[in-house]
Design a protein that fits this description.
Elements lengths: L1 E3 L14 E3 H9 L2 H10 L2 H5 L12 H13 L41 H10 L17 H15 L24 H16 L5 H7 L14 H30 L10
């Protein structure tokens, strides 16, 4: 059965795929942070014991959970993401004296009479956070010049890599702005599961098997003191992953994800 793929912030270009099979949508979600929310929530005995199950029945496999609950939790409440668009168009007859016309004669939603340096200072003092820029583009100059000028404006005002995209989510369940890598999720999950499944194993041994920190792997040529030192450090590495896993689980129970601290 085909369905309209909703807009998901963590599924790149989801708005470009208007129709997909449910299985394909679930597969895209499986390769996103949504999968790890489900996986860590699945580790929570407290959540499974909660009859309300606010985030769905995690005893289902991921595809079943996604179809029944996940897509509704994480879908954005809009049909398509915001697009660059022309907010205002001005028309003026281009006579020979055009360039002599005082700037004050034009309407300007950005108030061009205020110097940029003063405008930025004023914005900072009142703690404003701009989220839209309305750009007026003169189309009687070369496109290369237009592109260069737009780039200069964006360089001045756009936060680029510092932007917190998740902050502006409109989904029912909003993810935290925490850029954990896929490999970190995987190692944290495997560490917790391995310790829980094989409690008789030493922590350093689990860390070595999961290759959590190859620098502390023990080799045949290592001396006794070096072996003790590596075991101690690898144990600390595993304990850190366990702390993170427990925090991820507890926070997932509250719909806070991903967050590796309990404060």
């Amino acid at each position: 059965m085909r369905n309209r793929l909703l807009l998901f912030k963590e599924i790149p270009d989801s708005y470009k795929r208007p129709e997909v099979e449910f299985k394909d949508e679930a597969d895209m979600a499986r390769h996103s942070i949504y999968f790890w929310f489900y996986m860590f929530l699945n580790l929570s005995e407290a959540y499974k014991a909660n009859s309300l199950k606010e985030y769905g029945n995690v005893s289902l496999d991921f595809e079943g959970w996604w179809k029944a609950y996940g897509r509704n939790l994480f879908a954005e409440k809009m049909d398509k993401p915001p697009q660059v668009q022309l907010m205002n168009m001005k028309r003026r007859y281009l006579d020979p004296n055009y360039y002599l016309t005082p700037k004050e004669d034009f309407e300007d939603i950005r108030n061009s009479r205020m110097p940029a340096s003063f405008r930025k200072k004023a914005d900072k003092e009142v703690n404003l956070e701009p989220i839209w820029l309305a750009i007026e583009v003169p189309i009687f100059i070369r496109r290369s010049a237009v592109n260069k000028q737009i780039k200069a404006i964006l360089d001045e005002y756009h936060p680029n890599k510092k932007i917190k995209v998740r902050k502006f989510s409109t989904a029912n369940l909003k993810l935290q702005d925490n850029r954990m890598r896929w490999l970190t999720f995987e190692k944290t999950y495997k560490t917790y599961n391995e310790v829980k499944t094989f409690p008789e194993k030493d922590l350093w041994q689990i860390g070595e098997e999961l290759k959590l920190s190859p620098a502390f792997d023990i080799h045949k040529k290592d001396k006794e003191e070096e072996i003790k030192y590596k075991k101690r450090l690898m144990t600390l590495v595993v304990q850190r992953y366990l702390r993170d896993a427990n925090a991820l689980i507890k926070n997932a129970e509250k719909g806070i994800f991903p967050k590796k601290t309990l404060r």
